[in-house]
Specification:
Layout (H helix, E strand, L loop, with lengths): L2 H23 L4 H6 L1 H6 L19 H23 L1 H7 L1 H14 L14 H7 L14 H20 L11 H5 L9 E5 L4 E5 L3 H9 L12 E8 L2 E7 L1 H7 L8 H6 L12 H13 L3 E6 L3
Helix pairs in contact: 1-4, 4-6, 5-6, 5-8, 5-10, 7-8, 8-10
C-alpha cells in the first residue's frame, strides 16, 4: 500500500471534522452553515444530501441531528457570555442580551482554542453597532453609553483577574512614600502595577456592576461622570472610585518620568486648581497601600 493510500482515510476524516465544525458553529443555523464557504471548502455537500455525510437515526434526520449540536454549541457560548457579563445580562435582560451576543458571534465567530478570547471585541462591537453610531456625539442617546461602558468594565475585570499581577513580589507601600522627604518625592517615578486599569465613564457603571454581582436589587443608574481604578491584590480584583484630578495624575504616572516633571506640566484636569503637594503625597500613600504601583524609583540627588 502506498503512503498516499494510507493517508487517504485520515485526510477524509480531517475534512469531515472541519466541515462539521463549520456547520455546527455557524451562527445562522445548519442550513447556512452547510452553504457557507468555509464548509464547502472542506466538503461540497448540499443541504438536501446531508445523509451522504451523516447517518440519520431512527427518529431524526441528518439535519435534525446536526441542529441539536448547533443549538447546544450556541447555548454553551451564550452561557459563557452570561458568566462573563453577569451585570450586563441583568441590565439588558436575557432576551436582549442573547440578541446582542449572537449578533456579535455572527461577526466574530470563535477562532481561538480557548474561550478566554471569546468576548475580547464585544464592547467595541456594541459601540460600533449602536443605533446612533453614525450620529455626531452630541446627538447620540446616552443609554447605549451605559451598555458599552458596563461591557468594557466587565471585560476588564476578567482580563485583570486572569492577567499578570504582582503577587509574591515585593511592592512599595505607604511607608515607602512617607520615607520620601523634602524634594525627593518630586524625583520619584511611580511605575503602575501591570494589573492597574483606569477608566473615565459617563455612568457610574462600577457601582452598578458590583451591586449586580452581589445579586442586589439595583435600578439602572442615571448619567454621572465617574473615574475608576481597577487592580488586583492577593488574586482579588478591586475597584476604587477616583476624583477627576486623581485620574488625571494617575494617567501620567508611567515609571519613566519623575513626579516633579509631571506636576510641572500640570496634566489637564477638569478643575481650575492643581492638587497641592500635600494632596499628592496623600494620594500616593493611599495608592501605594492599595497596590497601584509596581515600584517607586527615585533618581538623582
Amino acid at each position: 500500500m502506498s503512503r498516499d493510500e494510507q493517508d487517504t482515510p485520515r485526510l477524509a476524516l480531517d475534512r469531515v471534522q472541519r466541515w462539521m465544525q463549520a456547520v455546527i458553529a455557524h451562527p445562522s443555523g445548519v442550513a447556512a452553515g452547510v452553504a457557507s464557504a468555509e464548509a464547502r471548502h472542506s466538503l461540497g455537500v448540499d443541504f438536501g444530501r446531508l445523509e451522504d455525510v451523516l447517518n440519520p437515526s431512527q427518529t431524526l434526520t441528518a439535519a435534525e441531528r446536526l441542529a441539536i449540536y448547533s443549538r447546544s454549541y450556541h447555548a454553551r457560548l451564550l452561557q459563557c457570555f452570561g458568566s462573563m457579563f453577569p451585570a450586563l445580562l441583568r441590565a439588558l435582560g436575557e432576551e436582549l442580551f442573547n440578541h446582542f451576543a449572537l449578533d456579535y458571534l455572527r461577526q466574530h465567530p470563535p477562532r481561538s482554542y480557548t474561550l478566554d478570547e471569546l468576548a475580547d471585541a464585544f464592547p467595541q462591537h456594541l459601540a460600533d453597532t449602536r443605533p446612533d453610531a453614525d450620529a455626531p456625539p452630541e446627538e447620540r442617546e446616552t443609554w447605549p453609553d451605559f451598555i458599552v461602558e458596563l461591557a468594557t468594565l466587565e471585560l476588564a475585570f476578567l482580563k485583570v483577574y486572569d492577567g499578570p499581577g504582582v503577587e509574591g513580589r515585593a511592592r512599595p507601600g505607604a511607608a515607602d512614600i512617607l520615607g520620601l522627604v523634602g524634594a525627593s518625592i518630586l524625583r520619584a517615578r511611580p511605575a503602575p502595577s501591570p494589573c492597574l486599569r483606569l477608566f473615565a465613564f459617563r455612568y457610574p457603571v462600577h457601582t452598578y456592576m458590583l451591586a449586580a454581582r452581589r445579586a442586589e436589587e439595583v435600578p439602572l443608574p442615571a448619567p454621572a461622570e465617574s473615574f475608576v481604578a481597577m487592580t488586583r491584590r492577593d488574586y482579588r480584583v478591586k475597584l476604587y472610585q477616583l476624583t477627576a484630578p486623581q485620574y488625571a495624575l494617575l494617567k501620567h504616572l508611567d515609571g519613566r518620568r519623575a513626579l516633579g516633571e509631571i506636576l510641572a506640566r500640570r496634566p489637564p484636569a477638569p478643575t481650575p486648581q492643581p492638587p497641592s503637594a500635600s494632596d499628592v503625597r496623600d494620594w500616593l500613600c493611599d495608592w501605594a497601600a492599595r497596590g497601584f504601583f509596581e515600584s517607586v524609583a527615585v533618581h538623582g540627588n
